[in-house]
User: Fold this.
Amino acid sequence: MSAQGETRRAPLDRARVLAAAVAAADRSGLDALSMRSLAAELGVVPMALYKHVADKDDLVGGMVDTVIAGYDPADAVGGPAEVRARIRSARAGLLAHPWLRTAIESRTRRTPAVLAHMDAVAGAFLRGGYSADLTHHAMHALGHRIWGFSPEAFEEPPAEPPSPAEREAMLRTMAERFPHITAIAMDTAARTPSGTCEPEGEFDFTLDLLLDAFERLHAAGWTSSA
Amino acid sequence: MSAQGETRRAPLDRARVLAAAVAAADRSGLDALSMRSLAAELGVVPMALYKHVADKDDLVGGMVDTVIAGYDPADAVGGPAEVRARIRSARAGLLAHPWLRTAIESRTRRTPAVLAHMDAVAGAFLRGGYSADLTHHAMHALGHRIWGFSPEAFEEPPAEPPSPAEREAMLRTMAERFPHITAIAMDTAARTPSGTCEPEGEFDFTLDLLLDAFERLHAAGWTSSA
DNA sequence: ACCTGAACACCGTTCAAGT
DNA sequence: ACCTGAACACCGTTCAAGT
Assistant:
C-alpha cells in the first residue's frame, strides 16, 4: 500500500510548515490554529511538525518572521519619506494578515526579521540627519499601533549572555547586521548610567508630544475640511 | 464531616470570583490562569464558577472591568490637564497589572467600564473646547499604547441590534450613560455617509501628525538636554 | 533523516444530579 | 440557589519506536 496510490508527498521543511500555518491563520484565525490541525492539513501526524519547529511559540514566531521578511524593501532615501514607506509596508502586512498583530504582541523574543525591520526604520531617520537621541524617541512614539510590533523590544534584557566572550561576539554581530539600532542603543547607554532607557520618561515624552500637537491644531481652529 | 472542621466558606459571588482571578493573574500571569486553577484556589469544583461567569471570555472581561472601574476619578477641569490625569490612571493600571494589556487586546466587546473610560477622556477634550471632530482624531491618535485599550472599539459594529425598537432604546441609554462618545459618533456619522470612519484616513492622520512633530523637533535642533 | 503511535498531563465546557 | 461528578472533545508535548 504505502506511497503509491497517492503521489508521494514532498518531505516537509520549515518553510513549508510556516507557509501552511500562515495560510491557515489567514483563513480561520490564530485561535483555530493548533499543532494538531496544522499537522492534519499537511497530511502528517502532529509530532512530525516538531522536527521543523521547536514548539508552538517557535511556530508563531516563524509565521511572524515569514510575513515581515516579505515587506517591501523601501528606497533608502532617508528621512520621513522612507519612514512612511516602511511603515506602510508594516501596515499592509497587518491588514493582509489579521492575526499578525496578536501574534506579534504575544511574542517577547526579538527575531532577526523583527530586528531588521526596526533597523531599517531607524536607518531611515539617521540617514535623514536625525540624531540618535531623537531617532530613539521617534521610534518609541511611532509605537506599537503604527509599527506592528512592540518598541519595548528595545528595552528588554537581551536574554542573559552565557559568557563574556560570547557576549562580545554577539555585540559584534549585532553591530554588523543591525548597525542603526546598535548605534542608538549605544548612544542611549552612553547617556544613561544604567544603560536602559526610562519607560516613564518615554511615556511622558510621547504623551506630551501628542497633546501639544493637538493643542496646536485646536488653537489654530483646525477643521476636517482642510 | 462536611462543613464543620472548616469554617463554612462564604458563598461565591461574581465580585469574589473576579477579585481572585485578578490576584491570581497578578501573581502568575494570564497564561497560568485557568478555570480549573482558579476554582482550585477558591476551594471549589471548576463548574461552580459557571454560576457567576458565563465562560472564560466573560471572566477575562470582568477582570478588565474590575481594574478599569478602580481608575482614579480625575477632576473634570477639561482640556489636556484632565486628559493627562486620566491617561495616567490607565497607565498606572497597566503597570500594576502586567496581564491587563494582553487581556484588553484579546477582547472585542466594549464593556460598560471601557465605554465609561472612553467617555471620560472624550469629555475632557470636549469640555476643553475641542470640536467633536478634533476630539475624534485625538482619541485615535492617543491610541492603544497610551490608552491601554483599543480605540478601534469606536469602529466595530455594535453587535447587530435585534429590533428597531431595541436599537432605539440602546441608542437612548448610550446617549444617557456615555454622552460624549455618543456625540462624537453622531458627529462622525453626520459627516461620513457610511457612518463609520475610514481606518486608513485615521492611520494617515496620526502618522503625519507624528512625523511632522518630529520633523519640527529635528529642524529646531532638539536635544535631550532640554 | 524523517515520520509514527501511544501515552501524559493538561484544557474549557456539557449535562444530569445532588443538597 | 448553589455546588458537584463524571464525561466529552479537545490541547501541547514526551518518549521510544519504526522505516
